[in-house]
Amino acid sequence: MTRKTCILVGAPMDCGKRRMGCLMGPDAYRTAGLGRELANLGHKVEDLGNLTPAAHEPDSGDTRLYAPRETIGWTHRLMRVARESMARGLPIFLGGDHALSMGSVTGVAAYAAEQNRPQFVLWLDAHSDFNTAETTESGNLHGTPVAYAAGRKGFPGFPAVPAPVPEENICMIGLRSVDAPEKAMLQETQISCHDMREIDETGIATPLAAFLDKVAAANGFLHVSLDVDFLDPTIAPAVGTTVPGGATIREAHLVMEMICDSGLMTSLDLVELNPFLDERGRTAQAMVDLAASALGRRVFDRPTRAFA
Questions:
Q1: Low-confidence ranges of the chain (pLDDT < 70)
Q2: Distances (CA, A) of 141 to 23, 115, 215
Q3: pTM
Q4: Span 66-98, pLDDT tens digits
Q5: CA distance readout (Å), 221 to 76, 107, 118, 166, 224
Q6: Distance between CA 297 and CA 71 in Å, rounded?
Q7: For 156-184, how does the pLDDT look when each residue is reduced to its tens digit (9 = 90+)?
Q8: What DSSP character marks residue 137?
Q9: Which residues of 113-132 are buried (b: 16+ CB within 10 A; e: fewer)?
């Protein structure tokens, strides 16, 4: 395993949806020992602390979107920090809600374009997050980052996407809650979508291996965006968008170990953790364990957890 410089980027972003609590996520990951686990694996760890959004006008509440101006401010800040961090190591974005990927993905993709290499995105999520600011029915912008990063229209006021991620370079695994308008839009794209029925029928390794082979063949950069609700809520309750039937902890660790084996991951999101909804920190710990698996920890290294 190649030792890396892991750059922890705290993004206590809580404006992508109406239910509050994700702003506590970055510190929960730190408390659960993310930095220590990565250091124990031999990686150099650099913690940038918690960011703040770029200057923006206050939200007035006169739009059906929830907190669009604050989200725009976060997108500006994260896009810049992501681009800069890629030049120094492997950034890990500690969320915060999934709207943070509007900045993280576009920033790392801009860096990839500067290196003349293609950007790929693995989206591990119960939701496709393929609405635009104009099509979202809820007005919650955490349901829009894939569409934004892919360069789709419908994001007035947001920064221009410097290097849109080609749709054929996006793979979604774990889907089980997709809005009808999103489904119709996705069917018109070249995005690779794998729902939980397919996972039940063929296993989770098959689509992932095919996607990783594609990234390797193109000498691409790989951004992995891991949403808490990729996991089944019985093992990861600390999320405001629970959907039954998610990945088991065994399936999730297999995904992360396959990513590690590939050596392809160049950036990572850990998003939608709401510690206010957690049970003795077990969701935060599960996410830290998954990040450690993606960066080299193996089953024989995994400690027994005692929550009594």
A1: 1, 299-308
A2: 15, 30, 28
A3: 0.96
A4: 999 999 999 999 999 999 999 999 999 999 999
A5: 21, 12, 6, 13, 10
A6: 34
A7: 999 999 999 999 999 999 999 998 889 99
A8: S
A9: beeeebbbbbbbbbbbbbbb
Q: Is residue 305 part of a domain?
A: no
Q: Is the distance from CB of 150 to CB of 170 less than 8 angstroms?
A: yes
Token pair for residue 185?
């839009």
Q: What does the DSSP 8-state code read for residue 166? A: P
Q: Are strands 90-95 and 5-11 parallel, antiparallel or unpaired?
A: parallel
Alpha-helical (H) ranges within the chain are 25-31, 34-40, 68-86, 101-114, 145-149, 180-186, 196-202, 205-217, 249-262, 282-294
Q: Which positions are catalytic?
A: 98, 125, 127, 129, 142, 227, 229, 272
CB atoms near residue 84 (< 10 Å): 14
Place of tokens 């496709």: 128
Classify residue 308: in a domain, yes or no.
no
pLDDT at position 109 is 98
Q: Which domain holds residue 110?
A: 5-300
Single-letter residue type at 141: L
CATH of the domain at 276: 3.40.800.10
Q: How far is CA 146 from CA 45, 102, 232, 262, 275, in A?
A: 28, 8, 22, 23, 25
225's enclosing H/E stretch is: strand 221-227
Whose tokens are 């998003």? That residue is: 271
* Per-residue pLDDT, 180: 86
Beta carbons within 8 Å of 298's beta carbon, 6+ residues apart = 257
Q: How much is the pLDDT for 181?
A: 85
Give the chain's domain count.
1
Assigned domain for 91 exists: yes
Residue 285 in any domain: the answer is yes
Length of the chain: 308
